[in-house]
Amino acid sequence: MQRRIVVVGGGPGGITAGITARRYHPEAEITLIRREEKVLVPCGIPYIFGTLGSPEKNLIPDTALSNNDIDLIVDEVTSINKAAKTLTTINHETLSYDRMVMATGSLPLVPPLPGVDLGNVFTAKKDMEYLQKLSQALDKAEDVAVIGGGFIGLEFADEFNKRGNLNVTVVELLPRCLLLACDEEICTRVEKKLSERGIKILSGRKAKALLGEESVQYVELENGQKLKADLVILGIGVRPNVELALNSGLEVDEKDGIQVDGFMRTSDENIFAAGDCTAKRCYLSGSPIAVRLASMGTTEARIAGANLFGIRRRVECAIGIFSTCFGDLAVGSAGLTERAAKEMGIDVVVGEAAAPDKHPGGIPGAKELGIKLIFERDTGLLIGGQVYGGATVGEKINFIGALIQHKMRADEVCTFQMGTHPMLTASPMAYQLVNAAQFAVAKLRKAK
Amino acid sequence: MQRRIVVVGGGPGGITAGITARRYHPEAEITLIRREEKVLVPCGIPYIFGTLGSPEKNLIPDTALSNNDIDLIVDEVTSINKAAKTLTTINHETLSYDRMVMATGSLPLVPPLPGVDLGNVFTAKKDMEYLQKLSQALDKAEDVAVIGGGFIGLEFADEFNKRGNLNVTVVELLPRCLLLACDEEICTRVEKKLSERGIKILSGRKAKALLGEESVQYVELENGQKLKADLVILGIGVRPNVELALNSGLEVDEKDGIQVDGFMRTSDENIFAAGDCTAKRCYLSGSPIAVRLASMGTTEARIAGANLFGIRRRVECAIGIFSTCFGDLAVGSAGLTERAAKEMGIDVVVGEAAAPDKHPGGIPGAKELGIKLIFERDTGLLIGGQVYGGATVGEKINFIGALIQHKMRADEVCTFQMGTHPMLTASPMAYQLVNAAQFAVAKLRKAK
After folding, report:
1. Does domain B121-236 have CATH number 3.50.50.60?
2. Minimum Cα–Cα distance from A432: chain B residue
3. pTM surpassing 0.90?
4. Which residues have CB under 8 Å from A103's CB, separation 6+?
5. Under CATH, what is the fold of the domain B4-107+239-307?
6. Burial status of residue B350 (CB atoms within 10 A of its CB: 0-12, 13-18, 19 or more)
7. Is the CB of B330 inside 8 Å of chain A's CB atoms?
């Protein structure tokens, strides 16, 4: 009897769950149902508006499905009958399944701000036509305000700025942009870079209202300041899209997402979930954590897709690994920041090292690369890391993420074997990762 | 009583041993003795002749010593009295020590080839004046032959070629250049790139003799071919510099190096050793292995320097992590190649994946990055990896090195949490490391 697998949701989580299932079940009938005619690369959305030029250049090709013999239905699931193992769509189709993967993703958070319904107020909605409208609106705009100075907000700001015709201002509630992901010194570095690139950064300011007639004209701040803005983008985060799960009677926390076990199973044994729609836990505290990233989503999907008819993989709690770049400055963060760890009550020891990313420093194109590592004092365990530098930052922070995941201690990082090359890395004497750990070990020793 | 530490050798191993010792012993008297007036960055040597322009731009500054309160003596140690714990130099100075670190490095291998003593035949000697002479000779040369197509040989060839005035030919004994570090498909990629850059690659050819009157004029190959060459560089590897250790009665294998235990202690309990002069073992087989890299040397030095007056760290057997680049093609290798593993009798499973190193692929500057992972079939353990691509290859291969070091299995790499970013990495769906592991897991399953 042929196994029937249905994936609900067409983003990176859904696609990866389908592909992974295919690898384990060559004979299964796999169907993916999604609402969207075309699917956007989620992390690419800000880049549509500067670097890429149009939403069409930021699509995930459907060959990812067809190459893996996954049937595509463009439709919307309205209800699930868990007992009968069937689902119904808005077009009144009924499909039966043996196992389902819910990958319904997330939706942009819209703050309860007076004026958010005015014209020319946008979010980072993963919708082709919506983003085309945003693109057209940007062509006519002059003053753009970005509400929210996290990764997405800053990426929008920098890409908008690349268009050349816009005055771009970022309004961030916290004392510094990026402060949920990075420590203050990294945040300051990024704010400085963005300012140099011509973007106005207003951190530590709270938006009170959006003002205008039909279309937005001003952002009013709590301090009374009024910013001219004929276009506003809200980049304050996302919430899990759990409507279908809720309506289907699955266990859901509306804020955190669909509850899943370590195998990515929901409260119904035949329904798995993966991606932005699921609840995640912090690798250190075990508390709920909002790591809604396509990267984490595909990791979950690789677990859900493998476990459908027999448990093969377990999910680790979320570390949270981010990277981004603005011009020639890239930054990355993995795990806890020093600030977050302290707020959590963890006694930490920090090690830092910076050096050129090529060697000797006179090699053309060499840029400073700096690493900060955060260790738990009592155990010496690596619990977080941050990097700033050039093109290698994305892989470097993944590397640090791997060390966190595999529970490395400071002393182990110190004697880590690495390769070095004049054109590609720091010198072996100055290798930042090892030296940052070495400085932390010295402090750990003093404390004893 | 003040502890006296003497380091013999001024390269990255010696300096790092001194600095590490200083971190643990703030009060100690630390002296470094070296022969050279100035010290070259070893891996930077080929880059002197193209990218950097002169040996003076490839120096390790002595501030690395002075900043750490390490006394420098430029002199040559001629003998050691282990019982008295004293050493004597060529200038008849006598120094006493409580602990010594030998970091005497390596010397270029000179093959027993007729004609190697002719004029204009050079090696990669770590000697400022010698390299200045090489630089001057290159200015007058027309046809240069590089004997040996390993990393150093190819780097010399590519840098010589950048000068514009030279016809450069590489002669490699093995069927492909780089074949000791990379599998054939990577080697072919590199050979193709170098050929496109104008370098003539003769692999699978053996040099039989160097011909000429006073100065070299031809390289004669075993197949009878005669290559015009008014300058020859021998890049066939290095041998450990063990003369002092041998004369001092330490346990030494002349081919492999000074024998050390897991704490980097020689056969004399007061003498440690680190760097190219020591014998190393393969992390998998435990057999001697010739990983003579500054990176490995500094790792050993961080262990030796920490252990002088109390054991704190242990060395892991050598993985061997290499990277290099030629124009826009960088390659890296860590651990065993597929070929070497098979020759060793290991049953392996290979996983491969390639994707653009930015996403979507239309992001300007995106380049293909490919990863090959080699797993042991019976255990699923990662035993080797290779990467080709752009600027991130150096850190990517270090990342793979870390996974080998920490004994990751294929299934663990599959569910690895990573961060991804349009400008900095592949897409999360196409993340090469995870997908390469996934392909290997699929093959491992089939085999069961």
Report:
1. yes
2. B395
3. yes
4. A7, A8, A9, A11, A13, A14, A17, A273, A274, A275, A277, A297, A301
5. FAD/NAD(P)-binding domain (3.50.50)
6. middle
7. yes
- Across the interface, which of B16, B44, B313 has its CB nearest the CB of A422? B44
Nearest chain B Cα distance for residue A193, angstroms = 17
pLDDT tens-digit map of B57-101: 999 999 999 999 999 999 999 999 999 999 999 999 999 999 999
Q: How many CA atoms within 13 Å lie on the side-chain side of B263? A: 15
Percentage of chain B lying above the pLDDT 90 cut: 96
Q: pLDDT of A398-412, one tens digit each?
A: 999 999 998 999 999
The chain A residue lying nearest B293, using CA atoms, is A419
Q: What DSSP designation does A242 have? A: -
The reply to whether B294 touches chain A by the CB within 8 Å rule is: yes
* A405/B contact by beta carbon, under 8 A: yes
Residues of each domain in chain A carrying CATH 3.50.50.60: 4-106+239-307, 121-236, 321-441
CB nearest B57 (choices: A20, A362, A424): A362
Q: Is A55 on the interface with B (CB under 8 A)?
A: no
Residue-wise DSSP of B20-87: HHHHH-TT-EEEEEES-SS-B-GGGGGGGGTTT-SGGGGB--THHHHTTTEEEEE--EEEEETTTTEE
For residue range A167-183, what is the model confidence (pLDDT) as tens digits?
Answer: 999 999 999 999 999 99
Query: What is the ipTM, given to two decimal places?
Result: 0.94
Taking a contact as any Cβ pair under 8 Å apart, which residues of chain B between 62 and 101 contact chain A? 64
pLDDT above 80 for A448:
no
Q: What is the CATH number of domain B321-442?
A: 3.50.50.60
* pLDDT for A68 beyond 60: yes
Q: For residue range B216-230, what is the model confidence (pLDDT) as tens digits?
A: 999 999 999 999 999
Write down the pLDDT at residue B1: 76
Fold of domain A4-106+239-307: FAD/NAD(P)-binding domain (3.50.50)
